[in-house]
Amino acid sequence: MIVGLMLTVPYALLLNSSDVYVNTTFWEDGTVRRQVQATADRYHDDADGLGKWTADVDAGASWQEHWRQAGQTDGSVTVTRNFVVSRLPGGALKAQDVLSDPLNLFSTYTFTETVSIHALSDSDAAMAGVGRKVLAYRVQMPGTVTEATARPVARGGAPDIAGSSVQFSLDASVPEHQITVVSRKVRWAFIIIVVYVLGFIAYQSAAFVKRTVSSKPKRI
Amino acid sequence: MVDDPNAVADKSLEEPSNADLLTDDDLGDELEAEEVEAADERSRVTPSLRPGVLTRMWERICAPFARLKLPPWNLRTFAWLLLGLIVLTFLISNWSPMRFYMFGRGIELPKSVAIIVLLGVGFLGGWLARAPKPEEDE
To answer: How far is C-alpha A4 from the geometric centre of its chain's CA atoms?
Structure first.
């Protein structure tokens, strides 16, 4: 059985499919949605193997969505699964928010994860190297991504950063990848509330001073 | 027949009738008449620059807003607006999805929407199960 949250990606999945995407979306409260999508080409991949592989993966809790299989018009088969959890295990997402850093205008989020590619035999890694198999690993962060690194360096070189999302092309011949993504977001809500409260205090103080000055008896 | 020359003088000494008395309504009418005259005077003056189409449209759009009277920014208004801002922030901050499951089917929706729906269901339940008003003593 393979862990439901797909922290470990089986090489069999990469071998039996033409594209494998692991999409991870974070919300600012730490909620995570992880979507795994694999597409098997009708003529070049083993579509039946994809079905067998999904049966071997732990389906998770009953309230989690099961694998969905959909046939495409070109004859390929795509299997998808969504996992929604309130928090990733091991504190994968660390947030520097209002409570921990009240004077900063930005909230900073740091996501760190080790992605393992599980090979069944020693020859799998060599085959992956020859076949140049990659795992497309996308992360959607709360806020704009400012830094994204993969160790060892992803096959595609520098990760592709676009606003709040980043994509890595992880080399399937390497068993472990260390992913780090940092993003930051302006604390609009907090700033607006603080400005509103300070504005009211200033307005009332000015009104008080004005009242005091006008009610003071003047010497004629 | 000779007219009495003092008749006019006597008449002027008579007590004034209701028609002769100057009431507040009369004063109001006079003022209104003056205003109308002044307006006529004004209307005869043609402005050298006629406002353009855009200006007139803008004035027409702004007219309802100009009549709006904002409430005073006192402690009560401040507290209500602050509460609104906090509730709005709470709803935006909790837009992450959550899943409800029953009988093999699941539905995924944002937490904020779930909170609003559950609150609405609660209020509806309370309204449906409300106790009837006691009849007033006759």
So the answer is: 16
Within chain B, residue ranges assigned H as helices are 6-13, 24-44, 53-67, 75-93, 111-128
CB atoms within 10 A of CB A208: 10
Give residue-wise pLDDT tens across range A74-105.
777 787 777 777 777 777 888 888 888 888 99
Residues in chain B with CB shorter than 8 Å from the CB of A27 are 95-96
Neighbours of A165 (CB within 10 A): 19
pLDDT tens across A137-151, in order?
A: 999 999 999 999 988
Give the amino acid at A100: S
**What one-letter code names the amino acid at A180?**
T
User: In terms of pLDDT, which residue wins out, A50 or A188?
Assistant: A188
Q: Is B127 on the interface with A (CB under 8 A)?
A: no
How large is the average pLDDT for residues B15-41? 60
How near does any CA of chain B get to the CA of A31, in Å? 6
Cβ of B99 within 8 Å of Cβ of A193? The answer is no
ipTM: 0.74
Nearest to A115 by CA among A142, A143, A81, A88: A88
Confidence check: pLDDT of A57 > 70: no
B96 to chain A, minimum CA–CA distance in Å? 6
Q: Does A29 touch chain B (CB under 8 A)?
A: yes
Pair A140, A25: CB distance under 8 Å: yes
Q: Which residues of A touch B101 (CB under 8 A)?
A: 62-63
pTM of the model: 0.69
Closest CA to A84 of B79, B43, B107, B59: B107
Q: Which residues contact B46 (CB under 8 A, 6 or more apart)?
A: none
Supply A56's token pair: 């071997």
Strand-pair category, A32-40 with A19-26: antiparallel
d(CA B82, CA A103): 20
B105 close contact with A: CB closer than 8 A: no
pLDDT digits (tens, 9 = 90+) for B100-111: 877 877 788 899
Q: What is the mean pLDDT of residues B61-75?
A: 85
